[in-house]
Specification:
Layout (H helix, E strand, L loop, with lengths): L1 H4 L8 H20 L6 H12 L3 E2 H8 L3 H13 L3 E6 L2 E9 L1 H21 L5 H17 L6
Antiparallel strand pairs: 1-3, 2-3
Protein backbone atom coordinates (compact mmCIF):
# COMPACT_ATOMS: atom_id res chain seq x y z
CA UNK A 1 0.00 0.00 0.00
CA UNK A 2 2.85 2.41 0.80
CA UNK A 3 4.38 1.87 -2.64
CA UNK A 4 1.28 3.31 -4.30
CA UNK A 5 1.48 6.45 -2.15
CA UNK A 6 5.25 6.79 -2.37
CA UNK A 7 7.43 8.00 -5.21
CA UNK A 8 7.73 4.48 -6.63
CA UNK A 9 4.09 4.39 -7.81
CA UNK A 10 2.66 4.14 -11.29
CA UNK A 11 3.94 7.59 -12.44
CA UNK A 12 7.44 6.28 -11.86
CA UNK A 13 7.04 3.48 -14.42
CA UNK A 14 8.31 3.68 -17.97
CA UNK A 15 4.93 2.45 -19.22
CA UNK A 16 3.07 5.31 -17.55
CA UNK A 17 5.56 7.94 -18.65
CA UNK A 18 5.76 6.80 -22.26
CA UNK A 19 1.99 6.37 -22.45
CA UNK A 20 1.25 9.79 -21.00
CA UNK A 21 3.92 11.54 -23.05
CA UNK A 22 2.75 9.69 -26.15
CA UNK A 23 -0.78 10.91 -25.62
CA UNK A 24 0.24 14.53 -25.01
CA UNK A 25 2.69 14.61 -27.91
CA UNK A 26 0.29 12.75 -30.20
CA UNK A 27 -2.33 15.42 -29.52
CA UNK A 28 0.19 18.18 -30.32
CA UNK A 29 1.16 16.46 -33.56
CA UNK A 30 -2.52 16.02 -34.48
CA UNK A 31 -3.11 19.75 -33.97
CA UNK A 32 -0.20 20.63 -36.24
CA UNK A 33 -1.19 18.37 -39.12
CA UNK A 34 -4.85 19.35 -38.91
CA UNK A 35 -4.14 22.33 -41.20
CA UNK A 36 -3.27 19.78 -43.91
CA UNK A 37 -6.68 18.14 -43.33
CA UNK A 38 -4.91 15.09 -41.92
CA UNK A 39 -5.05 13.00 -38.77
CA UNK A 40 -2.22 10.82 -37.42
CA UNK A 41 -3.75 7.67 -38.96
CA UNK A 42 -3.65 9.33 -42.39
CA UNK A 43 0.03 10.07 -41.82
CA UNK A 44 0.58 6.45 -40.83
CA UNK A 45 -0.86 5.32 -44.15
CA UNK A 46 1.20 7.90 -46.06
CA UNK A 47 4.31 6.66 -44.24
CA UNK A 48 3.57 3.00 -45.03
CA UNK A 49 3.03 3.88 -48.69
CA UNK A 50 6.22 5.94 -48.69
CA UNK A 51 8.16 2.83 -47.66
CA UNK A 52 6.78 0.73 -50.52
CA UNK A 53 4.79 2.48 -53.19
CA UNK A 54 2.60 -0.31 -54.58
CA UNK A 55 0.64 -2.12 -51.87
CA UNK A 56 -2.87 -3.51 -51.77
CA UNK A 57 -5.30 -2.18 -49.23
CA UNK A 58 -5.40 -5.66 -47.65
CA UNK A 59 -1.59 -5.79 -47.33
CA UNK A 60 -1.55 -2.32 -45.83
CA UNK A 61 -4.17 -3.27 -43.26
CA UNK A 62 -1.99 -6.20 -42.21
CA UNK A 63 1.16 -4.09 -42.11
CA UNK A 64 -0.55 -1.40 -40.03
CA UNK A 65 -2.41 -3.86 -37.82
CA UNK A 66 -5.82 -2.33 -38.54
CA UNK A 67 -9.08 -3.44 -40.10
CA UNK A 68 -9.19 -3.31 -43.91
CA UNK A 69 -12.26 -1.07 -43.68
CA UNK A 70 -10.16 1.56 -41.87
CA UNK A 71 -7.58 1.52 -44.66
CA UNK A 72 -10.39 2.02 -47.18
CA UNK A 73 -11.72 4.99 -45.20
CA UNK A 74 -8.28 6.56 -44.79
CA UNK A 75 -7.48 5.98 -48.47
CA UNK A 76 -10.79 7.58 -49.51
CA UNK A 77 -9.84 10.75 -47.66
CA UNK A 78 -6.27 10.79 -48.96
CA UNK A 79 -7.53 10.20 -52.48
CA UNK A 80 -9.88 13.19 -52.10
CA UNK A 81 -6.83 15.30 -51.20
CA UNK A 82 -4.99 14.05 -54.29
CA UNK A 83 -2.40 12.34 -52.06
CA UNK A 84 -2.80 8.84 -53.47
CA UNK A 85 -4.37 6.97 -56.30
CA UNK A 86 -5.87 3.53 -56.52
CA UNK A 87 -4.55 1.35 -59.31
CA UNK A 88 -5.69 -2.09 -60.42
CA UNK A 89 -2.87 -4.59 -60.14
CA UNK A 90 -2.05 -5.66 -63.70
CA UNK A 91 -1.26 -9.18 -62.41
CA UNK A 92 -4.54 -9.50 -60.49
CA UNK A 93 -7.39 -7.23 -61.59
CA UNK A 94 -9.30 -8.02 -58.36
CA UNK A 95 -6.52 -6.43 -56.35
CA UNK A 96 -6.54 -2.68 -55.91
CA UNK A 97 -3.24 -1.09 -54.94
CA UNK A 98 -2.45 2.34 -53.55
CA UNK A 99 0.39 4.58 -54.69
CA UNK A 100 1.47 7.98 -53.45
CA UNK A 101 1.14 10.92 -55.78
CA UNK A 102 3.40 13.95 -55.83
CA UNK A 103 0.87 15.64 -53.54
CA UNK A 104 1.10 12.68 -51.17
CA UNK A 105 4.88 13.01 -51.07
CA UNK A 106 4.50 16.75 -50.34
CA UNK A 107 2.09 16.03 -47.48
CA UNK A 108 4.40 13.36 -46.08
CA UNK A 109 7.33 15.81 -46.20
CA UNK A 110 5.24 18.51 -44.50
CA UNK A 111 4.22 16.10 -41.72
CA UNK A 112 7.83 15.00 -41.29
CA UNK A 113 8.86 18.65 -40.92
CA UNK A 114 6.11 19.18 -38.32
CA UNK A 115 7.32 16.11 -36.41
CA UNK A 116 10.94 17.29 -36.50
CA UNK A 117 9.92 20.72 -35.20
CA UNK A 118 7.98 19.08 -32.40
CA UNK A 119 10.99 16.84 -31.66
CA UNK A 120 13.19 19.93 -31.31
CA UNK A 121 10.70 21.66 -29.02
CA UNK A 122 10.26 18.58 -26.89
CA UNK A 123 13.97 18.02 -26.41
CA UNK A 124 15.14 21.67 -26.32
CA UNK A 125 16.10 21.41 -22.65
CA UNK A 126 18.25 18.31 -23.24
CA UNK A 127 21.89 18.37 -24.18
CA UNK A 128 23.01 16.74 -27.42
CA UNK A 129 24.26 13.55 -25.70
CA UNK A 130 20.89 13.18 -23.92
CA UNK A 131 18.99 13.71 -27.19
CA UNK A 132 21.10 11.09 -28.94
CA UNK A 133 20.71 8.62 -26.06
CA UNK A 134 16.94 9.14 -25.97
CA UNK A 135 16.70 8.66 -29.74
CA UNK A 136 18.79 5.49 -29.60
CA UNK A 137 16.85 4.03 -26.65
CA UNK A 138 13.46 4.71 -28.23
CA UNK A 139 14.72 3.32 -31.54
CA UNK A 140 15.79 0.14 -29.79
CA UNK A 141 12.40 -0.23 -28.09
CA UNK A 142 10.59 0.42 -31.38
CA UNK A 143 12.70 -2.16 -33.21
CA UNK A 144 12.01 -4.73 -30.50
CA UNK A 145 8.29 -4.19 -31.06
CA UNK A 146 8.64 -4.49 -34.84
CA UNK A 147 7.92 -0.80 -35.42
CA UNK A 148 9.63 1.30 -38.09
CA UNK A 149 12.83 2.93 -36.88
CA UNK A 150 13.90 4.83 -40.01
Amino acid sequence: MNEVRGSAGLPDTLVFRLGTLGSVIGDRFAQRIERHDLKPKHVGLLTALGQGSFASQQELAGRLGVAPSLVVSLADHLESLGALRRVRDPRDRRRQALTLTDRGLELLAACTAEARTLDAELTAHLGEPERQALHAALGSLAAQEGLPTD
